[in-house]
Specification:
single chain; alpha+beta; 5-stranded antiparallel sheet; 13 helices; rod-shaped; HATPase_dom; cell membrane; transmembrane; ATP-binding
Length: 598
Amino acid sequence: MIWRSIIGKLWATIIVIVTIVLLFLTLFLLQFFENSNIQQAEQQMEKIGVKAERMLEHSDGRSMNELLNSVSDIVDVYDSSYVLIMNHHVWKGPKGQAETGLTQRLFEKDRTLKQVFSGRKVNKMSSFRVKTDHGIKMQRLLIVGVPVRVSSTEFGAVYIIQPVQIAQNALDQSKKLIYICAGLSILLTTFFAFFLSTRIGAPLRRMRKAALQVALGNFDITVPVITRDEVGDLAIAFNNMRKKLKENMTALHQEKEQLAGILQNMADGVLLIDTDAKIAASNPPADHFVYSWNYEQRQDTENLQTPTILRDLLLKVSADGVQKIQEITVQGRIWVVIMKPLYDSNKIRGAVAVLRDMTEERHNDEMIRSFVANVSHELRTPIAMMQGYSEAIIDDIAETAQGKKDMAQIILDESKRMGRLVNELLDLAKLETGHFQLDRRSIDIGDFFKHVVMKFSNLANEAGIRLQADSQQLEGTSFLLDPDRVEQVMTNLIDNAIRHTRKDGVVVVWANIEEDLLHVYVKDSGVGIAQEDIPFVFERFYKADKARTRGKAGTGLGLAIAKHIVEAHGGEISVNSIQGEGTTFQFTLSQVEETGGK
């Protein structure tokens, strides 16, 4: 509304001030004109009275009637009347507008008017009871009395009488003129005040509109500078503020994007926690940690809730005001949490937690320590057996030719085992360093799977295990891959599945193609893998349970080699397992050759 705007307030203020000034000025002028008119009327009436008094005192031989007629003519010019009292005689005239019908008794008894008979001039304005054709009424009269000398000690009196209404008529005309001038002044003031306030308010409205746009993020709007007064200076200051604010917001936005990019691409997780232990900000690794924690604790995984262990750590950080470090194990992975308090002046307003997944580092450290031990262990057994049986042959412990042949066969088997170990180590080294080439060619994928599965039929029958294959939908379908390397992967997976499945168990192999990707699954109903061992099954020399091999030779390198072969084909390999229920290995292969030339 206009009354709530600065235009309305400024306009109303000017109008009120001008109206009050004009009101007081009008009252002053009216009072001034009224007093002036009364004084002017008194002066005229006094002059008439003096002239009448001189005519009466200096008659120059004229009769009384002639003198009275002259006085009447003079008085009548000014719409007045007179009352002459001399020698106890009373003369009145003329009969016209000023006729009052006042009695002699009034003049002789009134305290002010009777002073004329003592030789003093008087004037009086008051309300008197007068007789009219319609009866008696109160009328406001102005009476001026002038003494007329009758003798040296006696005075008569001539009273000039005029109704105040006659002077009031002139005053009413003056009032009307004053009222018209005041009204015109108010109208003109209203117009110019509104024009002035609009001139002032228009730039302010534009600045308000621009301020709202700036609040919405539009920093390109500019307020035009129309005047060079304070309002113009305000518009210039606003434009300078907008430019600086745009520069600051742009710099802040860039820094925010940089920080968001850094956080999103950090390998470590970052959590910003407020004083209520609620997550204010996070990045993907931190989200993964929180999800894993809530999943493990059987809590709601849809909403990111701060883990209880981080809440406790936040309390310690807030209490001590220093950085705290704690190691947490979640879903078989080791996390190191570094939590540091955040201050707002001297008050802690939250904390930032850096979550570092140390699983691989810890495992690599363990692998470095155990690599030599694993190799030594794998080589020591065949070397010891070869050494022992060689000494037995030299010492002629075997007395028969068949005994010597059996010992030589054991030495041959162990040497082959050492050869396989060395070859797998060499293959793994080539795969890890990329010093090998895939021999990709298009083959009938259905026949390929039948051939690979068929190789294990006898082994499965001997172990009392049912081996099933489902690759009918692949018959007649060609796929680009390295058949020798892929056969090596499937051989390792199927062999592991048979060796780790109990008698009367089932091993199922099936495959399908979706969106130019070959999906292969090897599922068994065996002993399964412990949850804490699942992340490491593709590491070299890793054996989660030595008892699972059931005495059959295994180097611990097969799955590591299989992983590198699958990745060289542009695919992925993974495992899902429930201990005591079985394991499923699955991998995908892509027909698109990588440009790296592996």
